[in-house]
Specification:
408 residues; alpha+beta; eight-stranded mixed β-sheet
Length: 408
Amino acid sequence: MTDEKLDIVVAGGGYVGIAAAVAIKSAAPRMNIRVIDAAPADVWRKDQRASAIAAGASRMLTRMGLWKDILPEAQPITDMIVTDSRTSDPVRPVFLTFDGEVTPGEPFAHMVPNHVLVGALRKGADELGITIEQGTTVTGFETGDTDTRIALGDGRTLSARLLIAADGVRSKLRDMAGIKTVHWSYGQSGIVTTVSHERPHNGRAEEHFLPAGPFAILPLTNNRSSLVWTERTEDAEKLVEEDDLVFEAELERRFGHKLGTLELAGGRRSYPLGLTLAREFVRPRLALAGDAAHGIHPIAGQGLNMGFRDVAALAETIVEADRLGLDIGSFSVLERYQIWRRFDTFQMGVTSDVLNRLFSNDFTPVRALRDFGLGLVDRMPPLKSFFIRQASGLAGPDGPRLLRGEAI
């Protein structure tokens, strides 16, 4: 049987995988792109989590024609406060505040329900004629001089000039390619849930540094907030299994009563936290993107946005090479993507690791030092503006065009 021939196969039908397919196809309509997703059909509709979409990513989604479908459900983050305290402290002094705009009228980030984001990406893929195959997996691949032969779990084979691995932090394709990783566990898990509250949050995000880890309150529409609650793994597992009464009581101890009565507005799950950095992002005819290339602590809220920065860089690399008649799967082409993304990824991985180690402890001298540092930053507007600019993910003149809202 002759292999079905494609230009690009994307393994992974999450945000990064579909966004990569849409970004490339939008700029190069003649490319034949297929997305292979191991998840059952429509499982994404049940995802009750929400994600912070930085300004750079929202500019990219706008350029791709998708943001208009996301915006009605997107909650702008108008400002952010940071506290450092113990759970038992009656008052939590604010050490650091951030204004939420990177340009007048443009928030540095929006909070978006995951099912809304994925729905918009899938709609964009459908309009471009990108096929998303559900419920099957890439079980192997064999790289040749001009293409790579890809085996699927249902027995079929495909051939493509490029295979993009966007199959998550436990990427099987990364392992098949023999790409090593730097990895360690933090012994922490992130509890994710949504609450509704009596009073409006006015778009304010809060990050409370507590001894077990950060407790982030992120605003959603309709008087709701998304919570990312870090605890030691054994404690997180117990909390998730507790009944609603116990869980809500522990939640209120950390959330406080400033927004009135709280009520759980969705399910709750916990996820183990660690650092995973791929030592290489590319091999001939293979490119890693998203969590397959990097998994970091959510303390800085940059995991998804790093994936979207991968998308912008990879799409520009591939489309420009194709326009020049180059082989999009060759190592010499893909190396540009690797150079573009590896330093930023390493920098963010180290930053999130240091922040987590610095703030997830209750050692008094360290607390005094970090609180002094937070207060110092709060008194330096240019430094705060720099941090907001970094968090917004906006590309400089040498960065990917999509992150500036420009066409490739």
